[in-house]
Design brief:
The protein has a single domain, classed as Spore Coat Polysaccharide Biosynthesis Protein SpsA, Chain A (Alpha-Beta Complex). The longest helix is centred in the first third of the chain and has 16 residues. It is 34% helix and 15% strand. The chain is of the alpha/beta class and 331 residues long.
Length: 331
């Protein structure tokens, strides 16, 4: 069975609802969806999906605990991760919970498309699933232009392990990928951990939590993969990130120079921005109308009715707030 999955907790509730509604609008209400819990804060999610019979909240605790331990084991092999996390005041394991998307390798779908909660589906995913007939891993992004958020590019071991061509052809953003159940059985996970303990862990970029691990698992594990951003003809390739300012919206779908996007990723925008907008704060951000359409697809009467001029989400704080912050009175 094919399905779509994501990772969420109640902190990203508004984004999750928008994602689920976009999946329904594009693919219909029958497509099965599985949500992997970032942590135990999922009461609002559970209430929301109670009225969505095609959506389930993953609750296989054995699977969750296995991947929790794998995440710990991986980062325990890294020579500097703990020190770097302590320097920024992070807990023992930075962004613990992001890795629970790995549960999809045990999950209910034989083949699955993973989408981050801060994405919206915009087009057909049939071509992506069709590629899984020939590949075990399919992505569509431009992470190959930014190696530094996956690998430690200063590590001499990186190019000892992988050629530049191999890295470019396999590297990906962990926010959108299609794969298959059972790709990483216990024996493969153990083998990967052995290699990491032998010194290969130093190539992982310590601040991206799940993304370096997943990339390493695919490239070191010899998983057959393809990236549509590298495979499609130039005239068919579209962007996918909110950082691209040239997309055009038509009937609540985004287009890149006339070509329909497969998905839009609101990468770099914190969940607080979406929560504040949905609570009525008039913050503007790229493709806000697209997000609001899907967020309130089934609840248009609850959509915020903004009357004032929107303030940019990344606008500097006012003079008053800066003074309060300096006096430690603003939190």
């Amino acid at each position: 069975m094919d399905g779509i999955c994501t990772l969420a907790n109640d902190r990203v509730y508004d984004q999750l609802v928008a994602l689920l509604n976009s999946i329904e609008a594009i693919l219909g209400s029958e497509i099965p969806v599985c949500i992997y819990p970032y942590n135990d804060n999922t009461d609002k999610i559970a209430a929301e999906i109670a009225r969505r019979p095609n959506v389930q909240l993953y609750d296989d605790q054995d699977s969750i605990q296995r991947w929790d331990q794998f995440f710990r084991d991986v980062w325990d092999t890294h020579p500097t991760a703990q020190q770097r996390w302590q320097e920024i005041g992070s807990h023992k394991y930075h962004r613990f919970g992001t890795h629970r998307r790995f549960c999809a390798f045990d999950g209910p779908f034989d083949r699955f498309l993973y989408m981050d909660a801060d994405t919206l589906l915009q087009g057909s995913v049939t071509p992506i699933f069709q590629l899984l007939n020939n590949y075990d891993w399919v992505v569509y992004d431009f992470q190959y232009k930014d190696l530094a958020h996956v690998y430690d590019v200063s590590s001499p071991k990186l190019l000892e392990l992988f050629t530049p061509e191999k890295i470019k052809s396999t590297i990906f953003c962990s926010g959108f990928y299609a794969a298959k159940k059972g790709l990483f059985p216990p024996e493969k996970r153990d083998w990967l951990l052995t290699k990491l303990r032998e010194g290969e862990a130093e190539v992982l970029y310590a601040m991206s939590a799940d993304q370096p691990i997943l990339n390493y698992m695919v490239i070191r594990g010899g998983i057959k993969s393809c990236n549509l951003a590298l495979q499609l003809p130039n005239e068919e390739i579209t962007g996918c990130c909110v950082t691209s300012s040239h997309f055009q919206e038509q009937d609540h779908i985004l287009y890149d120079r006339g070509k329909r996007l497969t998905y839009i990723h609101y990468i770099g925008l914190t969940s607080d921005i979406f929560s504040q907008v949905c609570a009525g704060e008039n913050l503007d951000f790229p493709y806000r109308e697209t997000f609001l359409h899907y967020r309130y697809l089934h609840e248009p009467e609850l959509r915020p009715n903004f009357q004032s001029k929107a303030r940019a989400y990344n606008a500097p704080p006012s003079l008053g707030k800066r003074i309060l912050k300096k006096l430690n009175l603003w939190f």
